[in-house]
């Protein structure tokens, strides 16, 4: 039975899809709910394995399509790091991340300063900033040597 929180999530997500086009399918909602339920930023494969437990007939291609639909409508963000697999984040606001160089785990980092880092850094003269990303690189507590 759906909880009040999942009903609220579903209503907000449905409104996004109604406003920007597309349907809120059971598969799409399952992917979104999984992203809401985790602290880390999973790969599409991790989302697939988790959602498959709930929806056994879902395919990896369907998970990819639904993740991209969520990103396209601003309901999730996609983090790409060079050759590594893309990871997905339910937060779409500007925030910082840490990434483990051993296992690739990506997690949110909250700044301690009141002023956003982007406001403390001056871009070169004539350079127009469109977006920014701050990432701390190191080893997570499970991988540190």
What does this structure look like?
This protein has 145 residues and is of the alpha+beta class. 39% of the residues lie in helices and 13% in strands. The chain has helices at residues 4-20, 26-37, 44-54, 60-72, 117-120; strands spanning 77-79, 87-89, 96-100, 106-109, 135-138. The strands form two sheets. The protein has a three-stranded mixed β-sheet with strand order 4-3-5, with no helix packed on it. A two-stranded antiparallel ribbon has the order 1-2. Helix 2 (26-37) packs across helix 3. The longest helix is centred in the first third of the chain and has 17 residues, at 4-20. It is globular, with a radius of gyration of 17 Å. It starts with a helix and ends in a 7-residue tail after the last strand. The mean pLDDT is 85.
Produce the secondary structure layout.
Blueprint: H1 4-20, H2 26-37, H3 44-54, H4 60-72, E1 77-79, E2 87-89, E3 96-100, E4 106-109, H5 117-120, E5 135-138
Parallel strand pairs: 3-5
Antiparallel strand pairs: 1-2, 3-4
């Amino acid at each position: 039975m759906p909880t009040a929180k999942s009903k609220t999530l579903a209503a907000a997500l449905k409104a996004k899809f109604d406003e920007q086009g597309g349907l809120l399918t059971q598969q799409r909602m399952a992917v979104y709910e999984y992203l809401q339920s985790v602290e880390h930023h999973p790969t599409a494969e991790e989302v697939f394995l988790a959602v498959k437990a709930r929806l056994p007939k879902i395919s990896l291609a369907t998970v990819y399509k639904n993740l991209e639909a969520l990103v396209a409508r601003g309901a999730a963000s996609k983090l790409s790091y060079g050759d590594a697999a893309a990871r997905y984040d339910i937060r779409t606001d500007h925030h910082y991340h840490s990434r483990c160089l051993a296992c690739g785990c990506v997690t949110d980092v909250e700044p301690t300063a009141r002023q956003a880092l982007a406001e403390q850094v001056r871009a070169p003269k004539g350079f127009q900033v469109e977006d920014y990303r701050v990432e701390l690189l190191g080893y997570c507590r499970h991988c540190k040597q």
